[in-house]
Request: fold
Amino acid sequence: MKTIAPSILASDLCDLAKHLPELEREAEWLHLDVMDGHYVPNITFGFPVLNSLRPKTKMFFDVHLMISRPERYFSRFAEAGSNQITFHPETASDIQAAIKAVQALGCKVGLAVNNNIGAETVFPFLSEIDLVLIMGTDAGFGGQSFNEKNLEKIKSVKEKILEENSPALISVDCGVNAQNGKRLLAAGAGILVAGSAVFKDGKPAENLRNLKKDFGV
Ligand code: DX5
Ligand code: ZN
Reply:
């Protein structure tokens, strides 16, 4: 699977419903960033936004939780229509139990590797998870630049996935743009999460089409 997941953090939420049908023609996944002002120094949105969007699209809701103790809210995010829930392992009190809890709700599960966290944090869980989300820079804000040191991280996770015959996909989140997308895919990424690169100038579908052409996906 090689694809782009638009991240609505960079969208004008009031316009999003209008853009959803055309986004849905260009992408299967929609990336939703939930931030709590505690694990990361920023606050975004939660259940009401997911609930409003869910009936408007069949897109796969790729929910990225940047919150402390996410296990408190898994069931609420599942009820709000998440198809996949990704959390940062350092935020959960028991990673193994948290993975199982997400799966028991019928959702796919991902583990995120923040900018300053080593890839080996997720290695023990590769056989059970659906996604490793590798941050291009510190979680918390859109519009930042990709930190090149994370290219090696993508490669090492990909290597380990192949070695262990794990079904997990790799997504790269933060700082994905027209210039670096191809390299990230070549390093082993399957999904490129893109916020600003997709939603800039209020023309998400057109930008998405151009990025897909640039990346050859
Ligand atoms: C930031 C979020 C990202 C963000 C990416 O912590 O996890 O999903 O929306 O934004 P860009 O593509 O603008 O770097
Ligand atoms: Zn994200």
